[in-house]
Amino acid sequence: MESTVVSRPAPDVPVKDRPIAVRPIHPTSSRLAAGTIPSQPLRKPSVARRLGAGVLCAGLAALGAAMVYRLVETPRRTLPQQAHEPEHVTAARYLNGAAAVLSFSVLTDSAMEHYRGAYHNPAMYLAPIVAASALANSIHMTATPEHFGIARTMLASIALATGLGGFGFHTYNIAKREGGLNLLNLFYGAPLGAPWAMTLSGLAGLAGSRLVAESEENQPGRLLGFPAGSLLAWATAAGLIGTVAEAGLLHFRGAFRNPFMLLPVTLPPVTAIGLALAAINPGFVRWAKPLLQATAAMGMAGSGFHAYGVSRNMGGFYNSSQNVLNGPPLPAPPSFS
Fold it and tell me: How far apart are CA 203 and CA 157, in angstroms?
């Protein structure tokens, strides 16, 4: 049986002269969403973005008012010049230093992580801005802990409120994803524990500001109606447990490939228990202090391990635009300190 081959007629127009079919572009696809870094296509504003814009405006207004008042206010000295610094002033200096460390960690971490998220929600700008102002405020409070000012307390309160609000936004980011609250979304969604570093920074600043008034009132320092020492011990213990949960989740995602990855989920819980016992019985302070020092040293060393983790990725720090964003977070470990 013979087969017949049917040849297609040659086109009248040469191939090189044929018009190229171009998909029509939607008129709005060339427009960019305002405030996104890197720039993102314009979409219909969601309820979360509108709420975020309102939160950003309110937060910036409160922060601006507090900073202006901070510049014009003259903090009063709570005690005369002395050769020996009182214990409560030394404690306030340490608290303000801790607030500065946490603020720096939040500033760098939120700036990088929110840049990776393209600042899609306008409220994402608030975290690094508030952290920067809290850092400057904490450094000055560390240098002059014996002075008391209302504006100092206001800036610390704004940092605390920003952390609580950030936790709400991060929870929404995970809840809206397909599957809701599951391990996959906890691994790759907004980190639930990150905003609490800002909250603890504000709490430390509030405590430091409150303690300097102790000499004037001649009574033990109190915070939110509770003894400052016990409340801070409980708050630090709770903060350590939250940080351990965040580190444990992400190190579990990394399969604990390095044995040192087990340290952030073993030492801080012991320290938290020691702090809780010290809050109940002051006799345990002598055990809690070395545990706190070891935890602080572990936090500083953790940045070195994370830097090594970034360098092991393809291109190392020469490809920093990708590896720093997607590798182990460099600013995260000092949160333990």
Answer: 8
Query: Range with the lowest mean pLDDT among 121-135, 169-183, 224-238, 282-296?
Result: 224-238
Instruction: Name which of 149, 158, 135 is nearest 213 in CA terms.
Output: 149
The answer to whether 126 and 34 are in contact (CB under 8 A) is: no
Find out whether the peptide bond into 191 is cis, omega within 30 degrees of 0. no
pTM above 0.85? no
How many CA within 13 A on the CB side of residue 211?
A: 27
Those residues whose C-beta lies under 8 Å from the C-beta of residue 45, and which sit 6 or more positions away, are none
* Torsion angles phi and psi, residue 14, rounded to 5: -60, 155
Q: Mention every residue, 6+ apart, whose C-beta is less than 8 A from residue 281.
A: none
For the cut 90, the answer to whether the pLDDT of residue 270 exceeds it is yes
> 62: exposed, middle or buried (C-beta count within 10 Å: 0-12, 13-18, 19+)?
middle
Instruction: Give percent helix, percent strand, percent coil of the chain, each to the nearest 5.
Output: 65, 5, 30
In whole angstroms, what is the distance from residue 157 CA to residue 271 CA? 27
Other C-beta atoms within 10 Å of 202: how many? 26
Residue whose structure tokens are 């009248």: 12
Confidence of residue 80 (pLDDT cuts 50, 70, 90): low
Dihedral sign for Cα atoms in the order 178, 184, 190, 194: positive
| Percentage of residues in the chain having pLDDT higher than 70 | 83
**Residues 6+ positions from 220 with CB-CB distance below 8 Å:** 214, 227, 228, 229
> Mutual orientation of helices 267-280 and 285-312 as an angle, nearest 10°?
160
List the beta bridge partners of residue 222. Answer: 227
Give yes or no for residue 26 having a pLDDT over 50. Answer: no
